[in-house]
């Protein structure tokens, strides 16, 4: 997994599983996220199913990357089904629902498959949308010219929205960078800075250093954001 050979790791996972050997939650979460990130959707779903059957707890990192990628290729009803499956199996407790909500709505927007009921469906499933999630949805409707829907979302934001916890996102992004899931870290960083939400200096420095190799333009935007905020650059 560390060497980005996730499909090879998946074959090993299957062999070990057949032998009845117990595989820890950290490895399983890294594998399900890595497979999804690398585009091995079917294999990631098989690991997901195995984790649910065995009662292996999901982490925010594992489930977040997995569901964030899946919502770009699956219908929203099926995404809700995956959340329900995790909750019904009792392996949801380690997941930060607000972060997952942001990843889902961002993924749906990127796939142009956003629906007005998304935020409420997530909220009733303990994936409480924070202000970032509401902003993503409101902007998407505004771009589509759906001003009535935009206004509805903004009203719900005032009633149900919560402030994003900078420390939670800090830990999540740093973990993404550590696991070499740079695309996911970049996309979330763009959501945070694009909405002018709080983000720590060390996170931005890590984003600039890691993202510059795959998307120099995005790294420049992070650099400009830091400059405008008079934040400290690390050498």
From TrEMBL:
Database matches in Gene3D superfamilies: Tetratricopeptide repeat domain
One Pfam family recorded for the sequence: PPR
PANTHER family named among the record's database cross-references: MEMBRANE-ASSOCIATED SALT-INDUCIBLE PROTEIN-LIKE, PENTACOTRIPEPTIDE-REPEAT REGION OF PRORP DOMAIN-CONTAINING PROTEIN
Keywords recorded for this protein, A-Z: Repeat
Protein name, as recorded: Pentatricopeptide repeat-containing protein
Keyword Protease among record annotations: no
Ranges: PPR repeats: 24-58
Domain of life: Eukaryota
């Amino acid at each position: 997994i560390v060497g980005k050979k996730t499909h090879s790791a998946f074959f090993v996972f299957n062999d070990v599983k057949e032998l009845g050997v117990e595989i820890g939650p950290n490895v399983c979460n890294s594998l399900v996220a890595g497979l999804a990130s690398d585009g091995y959707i079917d294999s990631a779903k098989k690991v997901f199913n195995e984790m649910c059957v065995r009662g292996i707890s999901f982490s925010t990192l594992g489930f977040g990357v997995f569901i964030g990628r899946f919502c770009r290729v699956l219908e929203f009803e099926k995404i809700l089904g995956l959340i329900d499956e995790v909750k019904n199996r009792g392996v949801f407790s380690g997941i930060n629902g607000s972060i997952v909500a942001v990843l889902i709505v961002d993924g749906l927007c990127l796939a142009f498959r956003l629906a007005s009921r998304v935020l409420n469906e997530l909220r009733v499933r303990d994936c409480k949308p924070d202000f970032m999630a509401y902003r993503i949805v409101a902007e998407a409707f505004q771009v589509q010219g759906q001003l009535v829907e935009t206004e509805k979302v903004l009203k719900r934001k005032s009633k149900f929205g919560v402030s994003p916890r900078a420390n939670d996102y800090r830990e999540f992004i740093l973990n993404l960078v550590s696991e070499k899931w740079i695309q996911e870290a970049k996309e979330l960083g763009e959501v945070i800075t694009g909405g002018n939400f709080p983000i720590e200096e060390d996170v931005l420095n890590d984003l600039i250093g890691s993202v510059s190799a795959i998307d120099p333009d995005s790294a420049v935007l992070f650099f400009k954001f830091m400059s405008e905020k008079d934040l400290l650059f690390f050498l």
